[in-house]
């Protein structure tokens, strides 16, 4: 079974799941899993496909969430306008930040990307008058879907959010899949695999990284918008490092540079944290150990268990390529 | 007009004058070899021409167009493509995938038409694939189409590098020691390949090489560098007799050092 | 603005700067030599303070005995972490290596929370005497101790690197890894030594922090991030830069907090870093940050 089919199958399973699961808490966990899957898919574009470690991803999530929060509570705009606006704002910020930082060498990029996100968090936290500082925005309205005066969905129940999240996740995955298969994705892959050679054959690493960075920013912003309207509250913590960290873990544990990886990662990390609830105090300690073990022993993530490259054939070197064809 | 004109190019690294006022010309359809003892500045000169390093002074022109100081990717887009002294391929990928990545420039279509999978983009991809297969046939790696590059033997890797460079459709091909590590028979095959590229495809080649058999048999002209300076230039036969060149190779008989 | 205010803020900044300089020095060694973005550095810093607190408060050891004991433990821990985790990933991509250090940090911080609780801990110095007045400027005895120990540690590190065989080997690996390997320098041992040294310096900074203020696990992540800020400011690969950058950041934060606004105090470093990377990417004393090839 190909990777794409597995992704489709998982999405199809998720679509019929509410028929069998009534528990509100389980539904909530699944909705959050969709959210994290979106977030880690967006991060995967830059971390997985281009190979740049961005530690400031929460900034784009947070910008999306705040855009939605401000537009819906202050300006009264409906969710369906807030959502694209969140993507646009986050994408524009990604363009500006990426244009400055992606020219820096890898290790510098890691730190500077974090610095930008942290500065943004401090600014939001301290601008009490403009962005309500640490108070944040409560009472963000739920979306509503109506057609010609008839309300089709009012999002009063979790099931509505469930399908909204699933739809957005599917759209995010589709966008990521399209990106990876485009020649842009191919160029990004070349940069990740061998930067010098990529440049020698004419591929501009900066441009490719920037496109991936902006695409990731837009998708993260959209995820942020969903987050804001689902949880109805947004505060400075959406800009915090812990969101970046969670998404990063999911990408790596699932398998970076793959479509399925972030999806698996979001599910597995979510489930693990839930299971560890029983050992409450030691939960995060154990989680830290699991993260270390996962990265050390499964560096290519869970997907590599299934798509592990075929076993290396014995060292019989293919002989004498130089022999045949030049003979003509 | 010459394919490549290098005009008084210099580069200094700290106290070391790596390349000093080098001027040379490569005509269209020529194979020119750059030789000289280790540390003579050959690879540095390559880096200066291809944008991997920026010259302190001097100009580089490709068919009259100034490409001095451009980024490596911009230089490649102008049609000047290089290989590296140390084998450099997309090691984790199959041979054909290496070529697909290298063909990227021609495959690229406007971002959106591509992302939405329009037909024009797909047609282009199919054409690229066909050409990549043709190049594999030409260099003799067709059999290893799906072999991961890291599993190729050394000589085959060097051929793959040339194939990668060819996929960019260069006007000028720069090869940095393509014969290093090849046995003598593989070296002969390489000579033959270079001739075919020149005669069949009208390709211009500038190469840095230590293998004197290869240099002497394939080159139209030879340029000799020593301590970053050009000390001689001419046909292989002329250069061989040049006393300065013999001197540069430590006074030892030329052939001996070269072997 | 009064001169005495200025001097008082500057002095406070100098104390904080000493903590920054010590942590950054250790991190810079690890970052520059082993190419590792070590997010666990902040957790190790806190751990040093926690252990010293246990030694002085619970076990009742005097400070002069507690410091070497804690440093020895930190050194050992550094060796173990290097051998158990980092040595196995020497050629790995920056991403998995960074994640391993993040995982380690998550583990250390939460284990400390489990063992010691969230309450801030103090390191008992035995220096409860009256603060000292220098004109209008006040300084407590523990702060003088912190500055003194920091200076000694920085000089000791400098002597170690410039005057011992291990130090020379470290510098060789730092500057020319390939050549050093060819010259027969035991890279594995140098890495172990370097990481242990970095861990120990972080631990020492944590001890001093606990002696002057308090330590608690929530300080781990900000401390790691600050230390990175410092080494970018000072210039990556430059050890004097790490010390200078630490002192400058301490001063800048203290003066900013004193005269402008305390709200943005922690953002000062980030803004400086962004400015530095935009206008002088090599940092104050370092090599260029943009890519060459």
Automatic annotation (TrEMBL), chain A:
Transmembrane segments: 46-67, 79-100, 106-124, 159-177, 209-227, 233-252, 282-303
Protein's membrane topology: Multi-pass membrane protein
Keyword Membrane among record annotations: yes
GO CC aspect terms: plasma membrane
Organism of this sequence: Roseomonas indoligenes
Highest taxon, organism lineage: Bacteria
PANTHER family, alphabetized: HIGH-AFFINITY BRANCHED-CHAIN AMINO ACID TRANSPORT PROTEIN BRAE, HIGH-AFFINITY BRANCHED-CHAIN AMINO ACID TRANSPORT SYSTEM PERMEASE
Subcellular location: Cell membrane
Keyword Cell membrane: yes
Family annotation (InterPro entries): ABC_transp_permease, LivM-like
Keyword set, alphabetical order: Cell membrane, Membrane, Transmembrane, Transmembrane helix
Protein name per the record: Branched-chain amino acid ABC transporter permease
Molecular function as annotated in GO: branched-chain amino acid transmembrane transporter activity
From TrEMBL, chain B:
One Gene Ontology cellular component annotation held by this UniProt entry: plasma membrane
Gene Ontology MF term list: ATP binding; ATP hydrolysis activity; L-isoleucine transmembrane transporter activity; L-phenylalanine transmembrane transporter activity; L-valine transmembrane transporter activity
Keywords linked to the UniProt accession: ATP-binding, Nucleotide-binding, Transport
Annotated ABC transporter domain residues: 4-252
GO biological process, one term: L-isoleucine import across plasma membrane
Record-linked Pfam families: ABC_tran, BCA_ABC_TP_C
Keyword Cytoplasm found: no
Official protein name in the record: ABC transporter ATP-binding protein
Organism expressing this protein natively: Roseomonas indoligenes
TrEMBL record, chain C:
The UniProt record lists the keyword DNA-binding: no
GO BP annotations, alphabetical order: amino acid transport
Record's keyword terms, sorted: Amino-acid transport, Cell membrane, Membrane, Transmembrane, Transmembrane helix, Transport
GO molecular function, one term: transmembrane transporter activity
InterPro entries: ABC_transp_permease, BCAA_transport_permease
Membrane topology (UniProt): Multi-pass membrane protein
Cellular-component GO terms for this entry: plasma membrane
Subcellular location field: Cell membrane
Ranges annotated as spanning the membrane: 6-29, 36-55, 61-87, 94-117, 137-161, 193-215, 227-249, 256-279
Recorded family membership: Belongs to the binding-protein-dependent transport system permease family. LivHM subfamily.
PANTHER family attached to this UniProt entry: ABC TRANSPORTER PERMEASE PROTEIN (PTHR11795:SF452), BRANCHED-CHAIN AMINO ACID TRANSPORT SYSTEM PERMEASE PROTEIN LIVH (PTHR11795)
Protein name: Branched-chain amino acid ABC transporter permease
């Amino acid at each position: 079974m190909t990777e794409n089919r597995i992704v489709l199958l998982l999405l199809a399973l998720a679509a019929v799941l509410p028929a069998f699961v009534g528990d509100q808490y389980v539904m909530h966990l699944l909705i959050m899993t969709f959210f994290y899957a979106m977030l880690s898919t967006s991060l995967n574009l830059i971390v997985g496909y281009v190979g740049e470690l961005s530690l400031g991803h929460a900034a784009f999530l947070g910008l999306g969430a705040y855009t939605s929060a401000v537009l819906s509570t202050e300006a009264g705009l409906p969710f369906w306008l807030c959502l694209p606006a969140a993507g646009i704002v986050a994408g524009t910020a990604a363009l500006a930040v990426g244009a400055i930082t992606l020219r820096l060498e890898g290790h510098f990029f890691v730190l500077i990307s974090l610095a930008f996100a942290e500065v943004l968090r401090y600014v939001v936290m301290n601008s009490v008058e403009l962005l309500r500082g640490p108070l944040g925005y409560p009472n963000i309205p739920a979306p509503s879907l109506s057609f010609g005066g008839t309300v089709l969905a009012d999002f009063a129940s979790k099931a509505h959010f469930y399908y909204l999240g699933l739809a957005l996740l599917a759209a995010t995955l589709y966008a990521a899949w399209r990106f990876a298969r485009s020649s842009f994705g191919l160029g990004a892959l070349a940069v990740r695999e061998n930067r010098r050679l990529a440049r020698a054959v004419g591929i501009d690493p900066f441009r490719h990284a920037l496109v991936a960075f902006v695409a990731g920013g837009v998708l993260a912003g959209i995820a942020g918008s969903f987050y804001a309207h689902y949880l109805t509250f947004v505060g400075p913590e959406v800009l915090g490092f812990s969101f970046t960290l969670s998404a990063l873990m999911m990408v790596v544990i699932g398998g970076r540079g793959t479509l399925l990886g972030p999806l698996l990662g979001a599910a597995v990390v979510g489930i693990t944290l839930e299971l560890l609830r029983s050992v409450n105090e030691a939960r995060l300690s154990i989680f830290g150990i699991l993260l270390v073990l996962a990265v050390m022993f499964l560096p290519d993530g869970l997907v590599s268990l299934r798509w592990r490259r075929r076993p290396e054939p014995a060292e019989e070197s293919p002989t004498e390529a130089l022999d045949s064809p030049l003979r003509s | 007009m010459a394919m490549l004109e290098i005009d008084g190019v210099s580069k200094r690294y700290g106290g070391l004058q790596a390349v000093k006022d080098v001027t040379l010309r490569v005509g269209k359809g020529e194979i020119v070899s750059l030789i000289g003892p280790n540390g003579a500045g050959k690879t540095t000169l390559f880096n200066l021409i291809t944008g991997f390093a920026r010259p302190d002074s001097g100009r580089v022109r490709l068919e009259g167009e100034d490409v001095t100081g451009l980024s490596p990717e911009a230089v490649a887009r102008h049609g000047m493509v290089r290989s590296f002294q140390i084998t450099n391929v997309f090691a984790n990928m199959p041979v054909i995938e290496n070529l697909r990545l290298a063909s990227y420039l021609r495959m690229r279509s406007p971002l959106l038409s591509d992302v939405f999978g329009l037909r024009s983009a797909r047609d282009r991809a199919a054409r690229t694939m066909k050409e990549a297969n043709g190049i594999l046939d030409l260099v003799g790696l067709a059999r290893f189409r799906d072999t991961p590059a890291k599993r190729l033997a050394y000589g085959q890797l060097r051929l793959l590098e040339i194939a990668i460079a060819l996929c960019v459709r260069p006007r000028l091909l720069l090869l940095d020691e393509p014969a290093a590590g090849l046995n003598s028979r593989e070296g002969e095959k390489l000579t033959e390949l270079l001739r075919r590229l020149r005669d069949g495809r009208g390709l211009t080649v500038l190469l840095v090489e230590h293998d004197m058999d290869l240099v002497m048999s394939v080159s139209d002209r030879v340029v000799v560098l020593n301590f970053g300076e050009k000390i001689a230039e001419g046909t292989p036969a002329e250069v061989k007799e040049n006393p300065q060149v013999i001197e540069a190779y430590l006074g030892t008989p030329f052939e001996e050092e070269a072997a | 603005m009064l001169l005495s205010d200025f001097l008082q803020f500057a002095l406070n900044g100098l104390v904080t700067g000493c903590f920054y300089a010590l942590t950054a020095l250790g991190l810079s060694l690890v970052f520059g030599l082993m190419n590792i973005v070590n997010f666990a550095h902040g957790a190790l810093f806190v751990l040093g303070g926690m252990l010293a607190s246990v030694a002085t408060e619970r076990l009742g050891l005097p400070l002069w005995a507690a410091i070497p004991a804690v440093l020895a433990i930190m050194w050992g821990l550094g060796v173990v972490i290097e051998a158990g985790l980092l040595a196995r990933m020497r050629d790995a991509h920056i991403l998995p290596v960074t994640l391993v250090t993040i995982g380690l940090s998550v583990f250390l911080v939460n284990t400390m929370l489990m063992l010691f609780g969230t309450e801030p801990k103090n390191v008992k110095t035995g220096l409860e005497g009256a603060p000292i007045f220098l004109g209008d400027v006040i300084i407590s005895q523990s702060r003088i101790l912190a500055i003194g120990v920091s200076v000694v540690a920085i000089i000791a590190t400098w002597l170690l690197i410039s005057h011992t065989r291990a130090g020379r080997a470290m510098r060789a690996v730092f500057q020319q890894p390939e050549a050093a390997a060819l010259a027969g320098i035991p890279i594995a041992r140098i890495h172990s030594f370097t990481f242990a040294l970095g861990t120990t310096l972080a631990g020492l900074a944590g001890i001093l922090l606990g002696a002057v203020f308090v330590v608690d696990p929530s300080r781990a992540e900000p401390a790691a991030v600050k230390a990175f800020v410092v080494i970018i400011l000072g210039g990556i690969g430059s050890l004097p830069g790490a010390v200078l950058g630490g002192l400058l950041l301490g001063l800048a934060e203290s003066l900013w907090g004193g005269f402008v606004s305390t709200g943005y105090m922690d953002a000062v470093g980030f803004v400086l870093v962004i400015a530095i990377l935009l206008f002088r990417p090599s940092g104050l004393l370092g090599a260029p940050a943009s890519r060459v090839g």
